Amino acid sequence: MNEHRKPTFLESIIPILFLLVMLTINVLVFKDDGLSGSNQVVLMLSTAVVGCVAIFRLNVTWDTLMDGIVNSIGAAMPSILILLLIGALAGTWLLGGIVPAMVYYGLKILNPSIFLFATIIICAIVSVATGSSWSTIATVGLALLGIGKTLGMSDGLVAGAIISGAYFGDKMSPLSDTTNLAPAVAGTDLFTHIRYMLYTTVPSFVIAAILFLIIGFGYDSSVSQTDVQEVLVALESSFNISPLLFLVPALVVVLIIKKVPALPALLIGSLAGAIVGIVFQPQIVERIASGMNEGWQSSYMVLMKSMYEGVSIESENVIVSGLLSSSGMVGMLNTIWLILVAMAFGGAMEVSGMLHKITETIISKVTSETGLFASAASTCIFFNVTASDQYLAIVVPGKMYANAFKEKGLAPENLSRTLEDTATVTSVLVPWNTCGVAQSTVLGVATGAYLPYCFFNLLSPVMTVLFAALKIKIKRIDN
């Protein structure tokens, strides 16, 4: 049997070019409906192109290719399970009146002019406390999106503020998995990494917050205070609103702060939401159970369906009816399908050596120090697009550039900061990346709709390269 040959650069970019061309056609034909299935098919066909090049040109065996695909999908399984539990949590928190209560009190407290500014600040605080952008977006993010809709604001704009705040914590919290992963790969310690990130992260966040403040004061909403009052009345008439309902999200936040893994924390939050539904919202359970089995069986069916099928609660107010629906675990299946085929493509590209060849070629062309930073940043974004996973976008470039940074006399925290400034925050901007597809599904907002407003995520890669070009806070290795 012939030995596996290393790919050339031309062979390596064939699947990438095919993917880009097909996705462009999809955008033209399907527009915003690409995630319904056509993008999944394109990724599947792109994986087939990788397989053809790998098997017929590089002598990669079928078993080797499949091992790479299976390992890549296996790495995404925690994200898939988290997505399922987020679907269940969204259903029970709606049934229990938790999300409606967040929307209700938020509308009473938040002024429309400062709403976007408050959104990015609130999400930043919660994500720093929990270390999880996913949990932040799935809980307070959903409530803030509901408030924004009620105030007549664009879904993409509000989602951009939510994601900007949530990913600030994902970068800066010592509880965050990416914040721990980046310094480990680059070869520095956690708190040195966090301190060094402050130089680029704080300016990016401050600029993003100011932009949202300016937009908020200049936003001309078509919704009047009378409309808001009608929403408040509709929520009051549908649910038993009480501050006690906030005990459930507080419980989830405490569990995550106490370093309880995300899966059990979200499961506990989902079950707590179901219990709260029985205790605080019996009228909702009874209304949904109408026509089902008698007695306890009907309540059991409602609670189960709220987790796997979601709930939809009708209201006379059109805005409120739009807020009071969730699709449960079932609503996540299309997202999971996209993650599976995206990870298959990334796994095939990696095991065939094509990803390594592309990044190796890029590194070989770098001569200047600024070029090295720009190259590392570009490689991280490239891996988010091709490997479809932010962890691979941190680990692989981190390993590849470690020696190059050392040879330039650059301390490892330069690399770890670059990894976080690019790989962590841009993952949510790619429609088929695990982060991008997860957040667009949870919020119900297309990636293309919120991308222009994710100011923090867009500014962070620019800031890290700008600091390198201006020689600001570039630490050297001590002799």
Automatic annotation (TrEMBL):
Keywords: Antiport, Cell membrane, Membrane, Transmembrane, Transmembrane helix, Transport. Its main location: membrane. The keyword Transport applies. Residues 165-470 form the Na+/H+ antiporter NhaC-like C-terminal domain. The keyword Membrane applies. Pfam families: Na_H_antiporter. It is found in: Cell membrane. InterPro entries: Na/H_antiport_NhaC, Na/H_Antiport_NhaC-like_C, NhaC_Na-H+_Antiporter. It is a multi-pass membrane protein. The chain crosses the membrane at residues 12-29, 41-60, 80-107, 114-134, 196-219, 239-257, 264-284, 329-349, 370-387, 450-470. Belongs to the NhaC Na(+)/H(+) (TC 2.A.35) antiporter family. NCBIfam families: antiport_nhaC. This is Na+/H+ antiporter NhaC. The gene is nhaC.
